[in-house]
Amino acid sequence: TKTQNFCRNEYNLTGLCNRSSCPLANSQYATVREERGRCYLYMKVIERAAFPRRLWERVLLSKNYEKALEEIDENLIYWPRFLRHKCKQRFTKITQYLIRIRKLTLKRQRKLVPLRRKIERRENRREEKALIAAQLDNAIEKELLERLKQDTYGDIYNFPIHAFDKALQQQEAESESESEAEREEEDDDDDEDVDKREFVEAEDSELSDFEDMDKLETSSEEEQEQEEEAEKKASHSRSKGKTPLKGPARRKRPYIEIEYEEETEPSTKTKAA
Amino acid sequence: QEKLALQKKRKKEREALGDKAPPKPVPKTIENQRVYDETTVDPNDEEVAFDEATDEFAPYFNRQTVPKILITTSDRPRGRTVRFCEQLATVIPNSHVYYRRGLALKRIIPQCIARDFTDLIVINEDRKIPNGLVLSHLPDGPTAHFRMSSVRLRKEIKRKGKEPTEHVPEVILNNFTTRLGHSIGRMFAALFPHDPQFIGRQVATFHNQRDYIFFRFHRYIFKSEKKVGIQELGPRFTLKLRSLQKGTFDSKFGEYEWIHKRREMDTSRRKFHL
């Protein structure tokens, strides 16, 4: 296909650089241009070639499409067919794109925000450094251990906690020895279960089995003791929640307290059931 | 080079003094040097407590509403974004993914409220990767607009675990100190139902560090009393807050509570807002 050049003149009718469609080469020429949504017909005749200021005559075309076409015909009567035809074509195209503009402005517009390379790089670097400084794994582990200590998990995990042992020692000798013996057995079983759990990697059925085994093994006395202790701890944590929080170290507490204040209840309820 | 000489000298002095040496100076980190933010939340602050009791999240924290979340994207999401949406839906319980076929946000918000959704998440996409997140609490709640970066899908994370189950995960919110951080933290907390199922042993973490919020999703296991193992499953991404609006999403008439102004806020290396 033959390549054609574009004409840079703003009064050009077709946009291509040809002898027949150059406003400079032809002394009698017409174009349709639009300004701020209104279409005008521009005409240039030989008689005004000496007056550059009055060279282009401008006619406002009506908003009605058919009427405007008639107006073009009226104004360009006795003009070469080529110019008339191309003017009408251009006018059609212009109206079409004006309609499209109006439709699009009603819809949501996508706003393009330029990316700033320097800022992007700076933010990426800062993000990496923040990631390193965050030490997420450690933080998460610490948080989980703290929650374990705070007994937010209730009685799901039976690890020999120091407070637990101390509470035991405070009780009577007989029940102490009994419960200690049983608890030692339990601990062994716990460790075994824990190992088993590690091998089979996060299968929830294991945990439920473990809970069941727990319930089967413990005697009724133990259950009561555990319930009491759990309740004490629950009440303790609840009371912690209601009294004013202490110090900046506890500043994370507002979120956690609100969540877990009532969470110990369901665990005790399940135990009771 | 002078620094090296100084350090060596100091080390020699320390060794020479032995036990009587003064304690080692604490190394300066950005967190240590952080410019004191006057909006830091004091746990004892009554005003904050009162605000929290009366703001838009009160019904959630009083357990009157159950979170129901709608996840959607911008127009024409690409494969990565779609998969990310799906994974996010598995992470957040009670969430639904709907595709946006050119629907205007202003119109879908009343529909969502009518269908009892509590939160709306819109993931904005650019050049086939998700890069923005709009999180809005629905019944007329605050809207937060984040810039999302370093998104890793589940298969890109190095681990050999399975998928997250349907159990309700726990939530960890770290380091949200200032008032602004506080409200953002509550927004995140409002996404998840109140009662985590500890059987599931899953935990979702939002960790704020120097104004970047890192999201991770792990499965934990207590190996012993003092040791816990965590295994990462689920997608991960980092967020940086760009703006916080008072009402629901409205770009033109919304009342902005906080906008990140680069010129003013990015000047100091030690000043953070979240």
UniProtKB/TrEMBL annotation, chain A:
UniProt keyword list: Nucleus
UniProt biased composition (Acidic residues): 173-193, 201-212, 219-229
Principal localisation: nucleus
Domain Ribosomal eL28/Mak16: start-end pairs: 3-97
Cellular localisation: Nucleus
Disordered as annotated region, ranges: 167-273
GO biological process assignments: maturation of 5.8S rRNA; maturation of LSU-rRNA
Bias-annotated ranges (Basic residues): 235-253
GO cellular component terms given for this protein: nucleolus; preribosome, large subunit precursor
PANTHER family noted in UniProt: MAINTENANCE OF KILLER 16 MAK16 PROTEIN-RELATED, PROTEIN MAK16 HOMOLOG
Similarity comment text for this entry: Belongs to the MAK16 family.
Protein name in UniProt: MAK16 protein
Provenance organism: Cisticola juncidis
Automatic annotation (TrEMBL), chain B:
The keyword rRNA processing appears for this protein: yes
PROSITE patterns in UniProt: BRIX
Location of this chain's protein in the cell: Nucleus, Nucleolus
Pfam families in alphabetical order: Brix
GO CC field: nucleolus; preribosome, large subunit precursor
Gene3D superfamilies: Probable brix-domain ribosomal biogenesis protein
Domain of life: Eukaryota
Signal peptide: none
This protein's name: Ribosome production factor 1
Gene name of this polypeptide: Rpf1
